[in-house]
């Protein structure tokens, strides 16, 4: 059993990590600013399904999958950055169009989140190094890693949903003459997410 003190430290660390903006948050906020809360939350769900799959891989001890991501680290993150740039260009080009540019379907919004979650290999490598630090049962670490993964996943989903809701409130406040500005800020946030991916290193 993981000591309560270690578990509390893990929760605090997870809260800090989940609240730190990165490519996933950039996509969620950018989507909510442009298309509203529903699209933002669906995107957050897609992101977090990707995170849960990554956590499951770590929990199952599939070291060869982690190694595969590590081996193709740059290729994966470049692809992810290119995708975020593409979305940013689309939002910049259609800034201020509102109803003329329909929101992505539920499947498309979810798929965007899932794609960007997997386009950030550093997340998988980080979890592979982060979670085991809180494991006390080295003989059978899988149950404890699975518990830690579940806690982190719950915190990440709550945090990402909050980002989507806050961005939607900002979108509502900027409606009307500021719609174009909100859309361009959204595009800028997506570009920021791409820049984070491009700047990411293995360490």
Automatic annotation (TrEMBL):
First-listed, main subcellular location of the protein, grouped into a coarse class: membrane
TM annotation in the entry: 42-66, 145-165
Matching InterPro entries: LeuE-type
Signal peptide: 1-18
GO molecular function, one term: amino acid transmembrane transporter activity
Entry annotated with the keyword Transmembrane helix: yes
Membrane topology listed for this record: Multi-pass membrane protein
Pfam families reported for this sequence: LysE
Keyword entries, A-Z: Cell membrane, Membrane, Signal, Transmembrane, Transmembrane helix
GO cellular component terms listed in the entry, alphabetical order: plasma membrane
Localization annotation: Cell membrane
PANTHER family with a match to the protein in the record: ARGININE EXPORTER PROTEIN ARGO (PTHR30086), ARGININE EXPORTER PROTEIN ARGO-RELATED (PTHR30086:SF20)
Listed name of the protein: LysE family translocator
Source species: Xanthobacter tagetidis
Lineage, highest ranks first: Bacteria, Pseudomonadati, Pseudomonadota, Alphaproteobacteria, Hyphomicrobiales
